Amino acid sequence: MARHYLGQPVGLVFDRPYGSLHPVHGFRYEANYGYVPGTLAPDGDELDAYYLGPEYPMQTAHGVCIAIVHRHGDDDDKLVVTPTGTDLDNAHIAAAIAFQEIPGRYDIIRH
């Protein structure tokens, strides 16, 4: 489902803004994290997304999907969205999502 978003403009709503705490695990979000409204992912929730843009809390944003985080053994892909015209290499993406994603347990998918 998520792959067709690669390279496409995306609107996001953030339910876990930059600096907020995870409601169960307690870690701090080091990126705005939310979802694509009106979508349905295989896990039954809306399609999740990291917004790797401004480092302050936001409620909504628009950008371009530059990659997908595909967790091994999990059917809950996450979009990586940046402001239009911004591209990041895989190392930068991995560093930016390390607060939640465990190295070696996911792949970064691109075109």
Automatic annotation (TrEMBL):
One of its GO terms (biological process) is phosphate-containing compound metabolic process. Keywords: Hydrolase, Magnesium, Metal-binding. GO terms for molecular function: inorganic diphosphate phosphatase activity; magnesium ion binding. Its EC number is 3.6.1.1. Its cofactor is Mg(2+). InterPro entries: Pyrophosphatase, Pyrophosphatase_sf. It is an enzyme of class 3 (hydrolase). One of its GO terms (cellular component) is cytoplasm. Gene3D superfamilies: Inorganic pyrophosphatase (3.90.80.10). This is inorganic diphosphatase. It comes from Nocardia mangyaensis.
